[in-house]
Design brief:
The radius of gyration is 32 Å and the shape is elongated. The strands form eight sheets. The chain has an eight-stranded antiparallel β-sheet, covered by helices on one side. It folds into five domains: 237 residues, 3-Layer(aba) Sandwich (Rossmann fold), CATH 3.40.50; 102 residues, Translation factors (Elongation Factor Tu (Ef-tu), domain 3, Beta Barrel); 72 residues, Alpha-Beta Plaits, CATH 3.30.70; 115 residues, Ribosomal Protein S5, domain 2; 82 residues, Alpha-Beta Plaits. α10 crosses α11. By secondary structure, it is of the alpha+beta class. It has 16 helices and 36 strands.
Length: 696
């Protein structure tokens, strides 16, 4: 394989709503560029990208794949990301390591919720974007309507570069507006268009759109604007230079069209990527962490090597591939590097350029390039590999917090360790889900981006690690605390059973602390009424009660205990006696101190089109939510609210129904606050009922 310098490399991620055809487009690009011998298809299970059994079953991309094409003396690295919204984490990972994005849009459905969300991710990453309207061969396509829909959403920055000739059964090819050339294609052909005359019925449309294209390009640069006014048009070179500059600056978002499934228009897209999309040389600097300081560094090939692991892909019977982007220097096989994230040495041995499950051996991954390494000793997603002595690491990818929780129990006794190991391995490939044991609710919780994401993770656990689990609705992690101070509460523990007895007498003060302060034990004993060696035993006894709770069995927080008095027996006092006395005196004092339940409150950001804000806000209010404000973003509103966690356990389903699938949200823990009295009564009663059932 030819060696490519950074100026001949294009790094592109493919994004879209689910089912629009990203993987089909990548298959078409690989076949058109002669990287594969045949046009593989997702729908018949021959795709080299959607090759996992669950991907074939579901006919959808579940995890990011790497692919590359060699075209017009350039290497295009494609990152194919899942379109299903539950799996959005890979899109964020991909955007960290590329210079441009191609957002596919359905020719039938136009802008969908996934289109909007992925566009938002691209804008947050300050990344150039290209739109490709896919499926021009389908019935009921109205290209003008789709174009109007896109312009309404994305404004004047959207500029058509390739429009279709016909639609549905009459779709024959595309017109390249930049070069003013028309191409016809053979359906399911080699993807290389045959140059033909522009159809007469499109002539006026082409002239109008090309004139509009020149105006848009001229507006991006004062010098071009002057030339355009002087000459009435721009030369082809001036047009291309202006387009490239406008795309890089994000002021122009080019739009092309075609059919990925039938491999029509693919070559025009590849030409555009090579000629107009930025190379890695456009990225002059990159953000790093030097200790606790976040800063940017200049990047170049002459610097010591540093590379970022943005994805781990596991292949059965082969091992883990660590996908890397080289930001400085070159990764060379046989060279020793340092994993700066884990402070451990690594030797670079097996390196590849990936095309789905196919791979091409390489001795180096050069500056600006993307590749994969196999059989690394201790390297995982978000790690930094660099020459020893490099004083920085690349920041970890900031994934969206998981939105859905389920409690997990083993179907077969003794599988607990296998479950934990399986989830840990799967988490390396997919950091957007978590699996933790929560001691306060005594449940193991799997947290993911949605119900389908949960199903995918559990399906992988079953197929790869041969363990099955059961799902339950998780308990809410309530807390108990007090509202007032009580003084000098005492308790004496006495036990006499023939032999040595037990004796301990203690007195405490109990007072509430500010929210979030936790627990504090203060020894205020004056003199020796309790031996010094027994005072920690009182604290130990209180601790036991803190963990098991008093009102409803939930952990106790934000209290201060003062040990103020007591009594020791010269023979019968011992550690266990003072532990029991500490536990019991705390229980008595707690019940006198105005005990209440606290519930976790969630910070929520819900983004919906303007039309749905009223319904969503009404629903949040019915869930005891407190609206904190609204942030307008074009035709969308982001509602900021604080809502009890108990009220939003299945919120994704509710929001889908309220917004016709066009809303999305994020959430994170905010704080604890008191549960309303009537709600608290129900929680306490349910807890006591559960305890009674266990006893019976």
């Amino acid at each position: 394989m030819k060696k490519y310098e950074a100026n001949s490399i294009r790094n592109v991620c493919l994004l879209s709503h689910g089912g629009v055809g990203k993987t089909s487009l990548l298959e078409a690009a690989c076949f058109t560029s002669k990287g594969t011998a045949k046009l593989n298809k997702v729908n018949n299970g021959t795709s080299i990208f959607d090759s996992r059994p669950d991907e074939k079953d579901r006919k959808m991309t579940i995890t990011m794949k790497l692919g590359f094409c060699e075209w017009n003396d350039a290497k295009i690295n494609f990152l194919d990301t899942p379109g299903f919204l539950d799996l959005q984490g890979d899109a964020k990972a991909a955007l960290r390591v590329v210079e441009s994005s191609v957002i596919l849009v359905s020719a039938v459905d136009g802008v969908q919720v996934g289109t909007e969300l992925m566009s938002r991710f691209v804008e947050e990453a300050k990344m150039p974007k290209v739109f490709f309207v896919n499926g021009m061969d389908k019935d009921n396509v109205d290209f003008e309507k789709t174009l109007a829909n896109l312009k309404e959403t994305y404004g004047t920055s959207l500029v058509p570069l390739a429009i279709p000739m016909g639609t549905g059964a009459s779709f024959t090819g595309v017109v390249d507006l930049v070069n003013k050339e028309a191409f016809e294609y053979v359906r399911d052909g080699n993807g290389v268009g045959k140059k033909v005359d522009i159809p007469s019925e499109l002539s006026s449309t082409v002239d109008a759109l090309r004139s509009s294209l020149m105006e848009s390009v001229a507006e991006t640069d004062e010098a071009l604007m002057n030339k355009y006014f002087e000459n009435g048009e721009l030369t082809l070179d001036e047009l291309k230079q202006g387009l490239a500059k406008g795309i890089l600056g994000g002021v122009i978002a080019p739009l092309l069209s075609g059919s990925a499934l039938l491999n029509m228009g693919t070559d025009v897209l590849l030409n555009m990527i090579v000629s107009l999309c930025p190379s890695p040389l456009s990225r002059k600097e990159v953000e790093v962490l030097a200790g606790d300081e976040r800063k940017t560094i200049q990047v170049s090939e002459s610097m010591p090597v540093s590379a970022f692991v943005f994805k781990t892909i596991s292949e059965e019977h082969i091992g883990d591939f660590n996908c890397v982007r080289v930001f400085t220097g070159r990764l060379i096989a046989g060279k020793d590097v340092q994993n700066l994230t884990r402070n451990s040495p690594e030797r670079i041995s097996n390196m590849y350029f990936m095309r789905g499950h196919e791979r091409v051996d390489t001795a180096e991954i050069g500056f600006g390039d993307i590749g994969a390494m196999l059989k690394m000793k201790d390297t995982h997603t978000c790690d930094t590999l660099a020459d020893k002595g490099v004083p920085y690491v690349f920041p970890s990818i900031k994934f969206t917090e998981p939105l859905v929780n389920v409690a997990i129990t083993s179907k077969n006794k003794g599988d607990e360790d296998k479950i934990g190991m399986g989830f840990a391995k799967l988490h390396e490939e997919d950091p957007t889900f978590t699996y933790k044991y929560h001691a306060d609710i005594r449940q193991s919780i799997l947290s993911a981006m949605g119900d389908i994401h949960i199903d995918i993770v559990l399906s992988s656990l079953k197929s790869r690690f041969k363990v099955e689990v059961e799902k339950k609705i998780p308990k809410i992690s309530y807390r108990e605390t007090i509202t007032k101070t009580v003084r000098y509460v005492e308790y004496a523990h006495k036990k006499q059973s023939g032999g040595a007895g037990q004796y301990a007498k203690v007195a405490i003060d109990l007072e509430p602390q500010p929210r979030g302060s936790g627990y504090e034990f203060v020894d205020k004993i004056v003199g020796g009424v309790i031996d010094q060696s027994f005072r920690p035993s009182v604290d130990k006894g209180v601790h036991a009660k803190l963990e098991e709770g008093i009102v409803a069995g939930y952990p106790i927080v934000d209290v201060r205990v003062y040990l103020v008095d007591g009594k020791t027996h010269p023979v019968d006092s011992k550690d266990i006696a003072f532990q029991i006395a500490g536990r019991e005196v705390f229980k008595i004092a707690f019940e006198q101190a105005g005990p209440i339940l606290l519930e976790p409150i969630t910070d929520m950001r819900i983004t919906v089109p303007d039309d749905y804000t009223g319904d969503v806000m009404g629903d949040l209010s019915s869930r005891r939510g407190k609206i904190g404000g609204m942030e307008p973003e074009g035709k969308f509103q982001t509602i900021v609210a604080k809502v009890p966690e108990a009220e939003v356990q299945n919120y994704s389903q509710a929001l889908r129904a309220l917004s016709q699938g066009r809303g999305y949200f994020s959430k994170s823990f905010s704080h604890y606050e008191p549960v309303p009295t009537e709600v608290a009564k129900k929680i306490i009663e349910a807890s006591r009922q559960t305890v009674q059932e266990v006893k019976e």
